[in-house]
Amino acid sequence: MTMLVYFVLASAAGAVLRYLADLYLPRRGILLVNVIGSAIAGVVTGLGWEQVIDERVALILLGGFAGSLTTYSTVALTTAQQSVERPGKAIMTWLQHVGLSILVCYLGFIAVISLISVTTP
């Protein structure tokens, strides 16, 4: 039961942060949370890969916090609206979100793996 409570709290925190980012940074808030959430996913996955983080904590951080922080449904809606008005803008928006998110996820994963391999004798 305790894990469920932590999961719900992490999910709520991620959702609130996403809302605030979109509210206070209307043009770039969603991009920011998608990139940050993807970076968190890369780091947590790297920590899990190296068995540095407990599996339950990883699930709470990935599925709860990062999962509710990121939103690709909003990106899909935005690009669908843009595709009618300015198709080139829609493609750039999608590439920014997906491309940057994949890049920071990969970099977070590689950074953790590299740091752990350097510090482990």
Automatic annotation (TrEMBL):
GO terms for cellular component: plasma membrane. InterPro entries: FluC (IPR003691). It is found in: Cell membrane. It catalyses: fluoride(in) = fluoride(out). It is a multi-pass membrane protein. One of its GO terms (biological process) is monoatomic ion transmembrane transport. The chain crosses the membrane at residues 30-50, 57-78, 98-118. Pfam families: CRCB. It comes from the Bacteria. Keywords: Cell membrane, Ion channel, Ion transport, Membrane, Transmembrane, Transmembrane helix, Transport. Fluoride-specific ion channel. Important for reducing fluoride concentration in the cell, thus reducing its toxicity. Belongs to the fluoride channel Fluc/FEX (TC 1.A.43) family. This is Fluoride-specific ion channel. It comes from Enteractinococcus coprophilus. The lineage of its organism: Bacteria, Bacillati, Actinomycetota, Actinomycetes, Micrococcales.
